[in-house]
Automatic annotation (TrEMBL):
Lineage of the species this protein comes from: Eukaryota, Fungi, Dikarya, Ascomycota, Pezizomycotina
Species whose genome carries this gene: Pyricularia grisea
Domain MYND-type span(s) in chain numbering: 158-200
Sorted UniProt keywords: Metal-binding, Zinc, Zinc-finger
Signal peptide: none
Protein's name in the database: MYND-type domain-containing protein
PROSITE patterns the record matches: ZF_MYND_1, ZF_MYND_2
Family matches, as InterPro entries: Znf_MYND (IPR002893)
Zinc-finger among keywords: yes
Entry keyword annotation includes Zinc-finger: yes
Length: 216
């Protein structure tokens, strides 16, 4: 289990939870959908098939309704796990351009303040929930939501405000040193530096030692 980025679906646990959501859909009697295909290239047949399934009338709302109902009956870790699955589900629905009920949008927006979020490194076994850049990526997508407009979940997003080219008409710039973070402008970069400086390093500068990324 590990992580190769700080944003949504850039870690093994998020991808495992996508599989869990597919099983929850089966329990709810919903159509079988390969949700992970939403993370493939938009030109792929798998992506188009999954997107078409998620934009079908009522499918997206039915998934979130089922997960909310399950979360209401649980406590502790099981409850928080189902709540984070609701967030990931809505993220996938945003990627598909699905129609999402306003109450579900408000529900997951409120959850972003409750679900665990870390700004930096975490041991893989405890790395549940958001990293800061992923949380802001999700909120920016949520705030920009329009039915029928597909959110590109893989597009570079600012680590400070979460915005992408879809919001600003400009691709965020990479950190000049590590190339592992994106920013809209210098103000965003300066604001995030207190978190980013701990891990910012030139991957080509190993100081004579092997450079291995085990969990960012």
């Amino acid at each position: 289990m590990g992580r190769w980025g700080h944003r949504l679906f850039e870690g093994d646990l998020d991808l495992d939870l996508v599989g869990d959501i597919e099983r929850e859909m089966k329990k709810a009697g919903l159509p079988k959908v390969e949700l992970e295909a939403m993370l493939y290239k938009p030109t792929s047949d798998e992506y188009r098939k999954t997107r078409d399934a998620l934009v079908a009338d009522g499918v997206g709302d039915a998934i979130v309704t089922h997960l909310r109902s399950r979360a209401d009956r649980e406590t502790g870790y099981l409850k928080s796990d189902l709540e984070y699955k609701s967030i990931l589900t809505v993220a996938l629905l945003l990627g598909a351009g699905s129609k999402i009920d306003q109450q579900h949008l408000e529900y997951v927006k409120a959850l972003t303040g409750e679900v665990q979020s870390r700004e930096g490194f975490a041991h893989a076994i405890w790395d549940h929930g958001f990293r800061g850049p992923g949380k802001r990526q999700f909120l920016a997508a949520l705030n920009a939501y329009q039915p029928g407009v597909c959110r590109d979940l893989g597009a570079p997003s600012c680590f400070t405000c979460g915005k992408t080219k879809q919001d600003t008409d400009k691709v965020p710039s990479t950190c000049g040193k590590c190339k592992g973070a994106w920013y809209c402008n210098k103000d965003c970069q300066r604001s995030h530096w207190k978190y980013h400086k701990k891990s910012c390093r030139d991957p080509n500068d190993s100081q004579g030692l092997p450079y291995v990324m085990m969990n960012v």
